[in-house]
């Protein structure tokens, strides 16, 4: 019998942490500069803010 589970709620911090880990691995052959990761994270934070205002 298959069971269905509900995933845990992700906080914005969880999402940003996971996104930063992805950027570090996916950008510059896994050698992303800290400034690059910070810039990408800033863009995502701005998107989160925009989404919040839209809701």
Strand content: under 5%
- For the residues shown, what is the average pLDDT? 88
**Uncertain segments:** none
Major sheet summary line: none
Please tell me how large the radius of gyration is: 15 Å
Give me the strand/helix succession: HH
Which oligomerization state do the chains in this entry correspond to?
single chain
Number of domains: 1
As a percent range, the share of helical residues equals 55-70%
Number of DSSP E strands = 0
Please work out how many helical segments DSSP would assign.
Answer: 2
Rounded to the nearest angstrom, the distance between the terminal CA atoms is 38 Å
Any idea what the shape is? flat
Which class do the helix and strand fractions yield? mainly alpha
Outline the fold blueprint.
Blueprint: H1 12-26, H2 34-54
Helix pairs in contact: 1-2
Organism: Crocosphaera watsonii WH 8502
Protein name: Phage integrase
Outline the structure in words:
With 55 residues, the protein is mainly alpha-helical. The chain has one domain (12-54). 65% of the residues lie in helices and 0% in strands. It is built from two helices and no strands. The longest helix is centred in the C-terminal third of the chain and has 21 residues, at 34-54. The radius of gyration is 15 Å and the shape is flat. The mean pLDDT is 88.
Could you name the key traits of this structure?
55 residues, mainly alpha, single chain
Please summarize what this structure is.
The chain is built from two helices and no strands. The protein is mainly α and 55 residues long.
